Amino acid sequence: MSGRKLLLTLCDPNTDRNQDSIIRKMKSYSSVFKQGAYFLGTEKNGGNAIGGLYPIFHISTDSSKIDDIVEKPRKAMLKVNIGGTDLFLSQAVYLELEQIDIASDDRHEYDTNAIIFLGCKVLEPGSRTAKGFEKSWKTWISLNVLTTLLQKEDVDLQNVIFLKQISPLARDMFAYVALLNIKLLPGQDVQVLDALQQTRGAVVACYSGLYKVNKDSSHKKESLEDLIETVSSESRRSRDSNRHGGSSRRSTRSANTV
Fold first, then answer.
1. pLDDT tens digits for range 8-31
2. What contacts 24+ positions apart, CB below 8 Å, involve 16-25?
């Protein structure tokens, strides 16, 4: 579903507040944060190529807020006030450039419960470097290397979404983001974090972190599905069609071909 726009918000990696407290305050500060999906970082510090690890990120498809920031970039939120103290944010609108299904099973339905966040910065948007990255992003982030390591640990890989920042074109925010959606089984955190640690810096020269879906009781399941993928419904339609003698084709690429 390339072409959709998403609003990404990252919280200051230097904050000492716990994740639940941050989410509660963000929701009370703006209606934008009452919808969408929250993802919680699984690491406290260390091991990253470009510094601190963001404790939380939030994804929204709020079209009114997205249109606001596209039209007036200064409307991107830079901070929220929590108990008299400012929590600094990085917020931008992203355009989805590509989405690749890397599930190994044609009958696979997405039930993502974790995301590997890969973020890359460029000094000059629109530069030759930026255009080169955009054209060959899978090579730049060594996607094959990372997915191969995860497959060896039997991690359920689902799909990857490639995003480009379009407003406000802030240099302190990632110019490009890849979201690798996965389903973790109990205890697999360690294997995924080990794979990230093996690839950080030398192999994957960008920000990388493992985030889990926040299981807030008020969170609407359908909003997360909308933010991640619609192939699950296509998969159901395909099976229904096959049951009734029809034919339906769906494009699925393995991790070795992305």
1. 999 998 888 889 989 998 998 899
2. 17/82, 17/87, 19/55, 19/56, 19/214, 21/82, 22/55, 22/56, 22/82, 22/87, 23/56, 23/214, 23/216, 25/80, 25/82, 25/83, 25/87
